[in-house]
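Structure tokens please, single chain.
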Amino acid sequence: MELYPDERPREKMLARGPEALSSAELLAILLRTGTRGNNAVDIGRQLLVHCDGKISALWSKSVEEIVRFPGIGKAKAVTVAAAMELGRRAFAEKADYGETISAPIQVYEALLPRLKGLDHEQCYLVLLNKNCRLIAMERVTSGCGDSTVIDSRQIVKRALDTQASAIIIAHNHPGGSCRPSKADIDETRKLQMATKAFNISLLDHIVIADEGFFSFTEDCAFDRSGRKML
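Here you go.
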């Protein structure tokens, strides 16, 4: 299906700016061409429908998953996946190394782009100096499905290597509640004992989910805007 000149995404973006384009039109620019019977905008629209209308759902899609979609070959899948990764990294840069971490929502907002949409658990380590300024934020473990193991030995070693005085750990609950499981509570206690032996402060353990996050220190769940949940 042909598009009229004023409907073509590239021309529209040049004339009106990227904010004037729909998500399907922006995807069409990445896809470049369509197939017989479906132009690039049609394919972009269908891809969004497949993702429940959410661009964020594409963040967790691999090239292998994207290429299975009708009308998208390897080259197009690589382009879409690369664009999604750039977007993820741009959001992740919200963590300003050297800034003071004083509230769990700061960790939540920095890590949500990396964890949102994943179908498995990942654990991140936030390393802080004695003034609670951010030294590093890095993934330490990745689990299978709905569980991950918090490796206390690895975390303590990394804290010592970076001369961190305090740490925060965070992990996600894919598609579930942000309330901690019994395993989460047990793992936190083990890590607290391990860090205490080396004079490292475990400031918080944050559980991240689509609905919001749970802070062990606050002993409370918060929605995505930072309001306490009942």
